[in-house]
Amino acid sequence: MIRVSQLKLPVEHSEEQFYQKIERSLKIKRDQIKKLQIVKKSIDARKKPEVSIVYSVDVWVDKEEKILKHSGNKNAVCVKEKKYKVPKHGTERFNHRPVVIGAGPAGLFCAYLLAREGYRPLVFERGKKVGERTEDVLHFWKTGVLNPASNVQFGEGGAGTFSDGKLNTLVKDPLGRNRFVLDTFVSFGAPEKITYENKPHIGTDILSKVIAAMREEILHLGGTFEFESCVTDIRVENQKIKAVEINHNTWMETEVCVLALGHSARDTFEMLHKTGLFMEPKAFAVGFRVEHPQRDINRSQYGEKYAELLEAAPYKVTANLANGRGVYSFCMCPGGYVVNASSEEKRLAVNGMSYSDRGSKNANSAIIVSVTPDDFDGTDALSGVEFQRRLEEKAFALGNGKIPQQLFGDYCENKKSTAYGIFSSETRGETAFANLRGLFSDEMEQSFIEGMHSFAKHIPDFDRKDAIISGVESRTSSPVRIRRDEVFEANIRGIYPCGEGAGYAGGITSAAMDGMKVAEAVIRKYQPFK
How many helices (H) and strands (E) does the chain have? Predict the structure, then answer.
């Protein structure tokens, strides 16, 4: 097939114009095209007010080399289809079924791959099925009554279920895992456009249905799910996993335990640390959710002409400060909501979330400041966890259990806000005005302020006085890394740490891909379970 890149078309182009562009680029006629597939679609707004849609397209034709040479198109090359391949099965035999702890993206894709290959995985998830979990989350946002086992962080689908549902990743992928993840989502109900959009997103409403469909297929393939089942202990003999304890009362023997923990499984981290599993603190970042009117972001990114025509615009901003800290946007949610993402009593954390239509009036993003183990009190593996917890306790107290908010101008002046400016917050969960100064160290607070002013050089009025900030964004990534070797095993053999909670991923797609890597390691070593 021939891959043609840099196909630029007007924003409001027709299908006929699209085909004509391809025909001209390869100097062929319509009836020569046997098959066509969009590989990538993006918006080019670098030369505002002119904005273009840019495509990369795979075209199947006869006599590829001849057509390519005749076209003279420097943006066209012959490529071969690369499909993901599962490794050859190993020879060792299981005495017990492989266990997967956690049903987030890493655990689900690990279990899915194992189930497809006949390994009959047993999945334990501390939270509830995604439908019941959604009811608990909505109840929490309405009443403030938290279920510590079923919330934005815990339950089927993991923390990404209540996020923007971004599916882009910077992970290099020569083996086709990324495409496998996207194709799998599509096969279970996601829109096909996620396979080619430059910044694909699925939305929490669609993602919930996709996750449930994946679970049903894993069950059909011989897997098993046990919900409301938290791993509370492990049994180790001769540095090998022998069994896992569920809910303090049931032991399940196994030789393979995949730890697909979320980044908020703090009690599980504590238990594993006590058992001698090697882990270490790692750098992450903390800050605030910052809201702007989405229309203003659209104007900045697309220009006035296309502010209403195109989808809600994303942005990405970053700054490296003289003090050595990085300040940057994270998990940007166009047309999104700020949500109460707490999972522990008397502690409060926020996140961002979008539905598939990205229809909220506001854009929000975490604007976060990098922290390292040098910022934590103590040096043990869980010092980052305690750092997060202290921030969340302060945030809970500031809002008396509600999301504490402040206007950026008031934050700079170190005074409590009393009202919104010309736009209001789009949130899920109750809010309260507070003075968020004092939540971080002086250096971190000044870094946040400096970062906001720096970003205004790229996005006009990013540092507007009535920009709404909400605290605290503390769960950007795992505060620990569970060590693993080149075959993905921990120092306790048979334990396979993976995904975001173990410190090896940063988002839905990268976590899913890491779950696949671990499944591959198990497949290479063992025969399917019989």
Answer: 12, 24
